[in-house]
Amino acid sequence: MKNLKIVRLCAVIGAACLALVGCASGADDSPGAKGASNGGTSSSYERIQFDKKEPLRIGYSVYDLQNPYWQSYSAGVQAAAKEKGVEAVIVDQKSDQSAQVSGSLDLVNQGVSALVITPVQPDALPASIDAAHAAKIPVIVADIGAVGDYDAYLLSNNYEGGVVAAKYLMEQLASVEGKHKVGVIELHPGSVVGEQRVAGFKETLAGNDAFEVVASLDGNDTVDGGFSAAQDMLSANPDLAAIYAANDDSAIGAQRALETAKKSTANGFVLIGFDGSKGALDLIQKGLMTATIAQDPYGQGRKAVEIALDFLAGKSPAYDDEAQRTIYFPVELVDSKNIAQFQVSRAEQK
């Protein structure tokens, strides 16, 4: 029996590795990557009866623990597991696609009660999911993207974050007369998280005739890319009134471009980022950036454990999108008015 299990495991690993050959290089370039909906689900999905193994253990295959975001996510998983009297087994995949496939399958082979995965490459998920389901283990996909017959997909509400940013911008410039030109810095092509953040922003802003998006450029997700994109926008539109960046690194780059152009948020320019990173929070405190849409990786890690325990108790989680088995986690706008309170709340998570 043991030999048969090993043969099956090797077969699954082999299939997964073959699948990786055709994967895109970007971690979130798949149809389901960080989007509001996911094109990678299977219409054949059927909920199975999961085994509540004893002792209860939650396995978390995490993208990369060198990244502060995933450090916080992992801390949330561990904190929630400890509170519930459950063991958390954390495996760092170090941004390695093949390591994630084998690492996730190793957690299944160890007999974890539930599996949480932040995939390096979503297209490689089905092999791990199939192996987990064969062992009657529920699978919660934690951000990045979801493909296959996963049981739940948990991610930030990226589209709503864009909506919040647009409404905030309109409030900031409501008392300023005239038409306001706006620039948008996108994430790299194929990033569905970026597409959703930008769509929420643009579609909301389109309902207000006082605002016009005059440029929407790729910032390549980086500080340098944001700097370059913002420079181009400001050069073509010296009267630009605001920039919305789909991540904080691009916003930080845009702030440097503002300095070069002798513009600043102190003089009424509105600069909004997305993520809630330390660099962006520092700029907000210094009065050099207007706001950021903050995600909550720690809270999401805690939520992932709650979802896993619901499955093991025979309950379904409250899906926001039942067809895609997706659960959205709230985002929060942070500006100079609430940054002190925000930082206290985040410090309490540690």
Give a verbal description of the structure.
The chain is elongated. It contains 11 helices and 14 strands. It has a 6-stranded parallel sheet with strand order 3-2-4-5-7-13, with helices on both faces. The protein has a 6-stranded mixed sheet with strand order 9-8-10-11-12-14, sandwiched between helices. It has a two-stranded parallel ribbon with strand order 1-6. The protein is of the alpha/beta class. It has 2 domains: 23-156 and 297-329, Rossmann fold; 158-275, Response regulator (Rossmann fold), CATH 3.40.50.2300. Strand 4, helix 4 (125-134) and strand 5 (139-142) form a beta-alpha-beta unit.
Summed up, what is this model?
With 350 residues, this protein is an alpha/beta fold.
Task: Sum up the structure in keywords.
Rossmann fold, 11 helices, elongated, alpha/beta, 6-stranded mixed beta sheet, disordered N terminus, 350 residues, 19% strand, single chain, 6-stranded parallel beta sheet, 2 domains
Distance between the termini: 44 Å
Rg, please?
Answer: 21 Å
What is the CATH C level class of the largest domain, in words? Answer: Alpha Beta
**Major beta-sheet overview:** 6 strands, parallel
Report the CATH superfamily of the largest domain: Response regulator
**Count the strands?**
14
Q: Count of DSSP helices?
A: 11
Regions with little confidence, pLDDT below 50 for 5+ residues? 1-39
What is the strand arrangement across the widest sheet?
3-2-4-5-7-13
Overall shape: it is: elongated
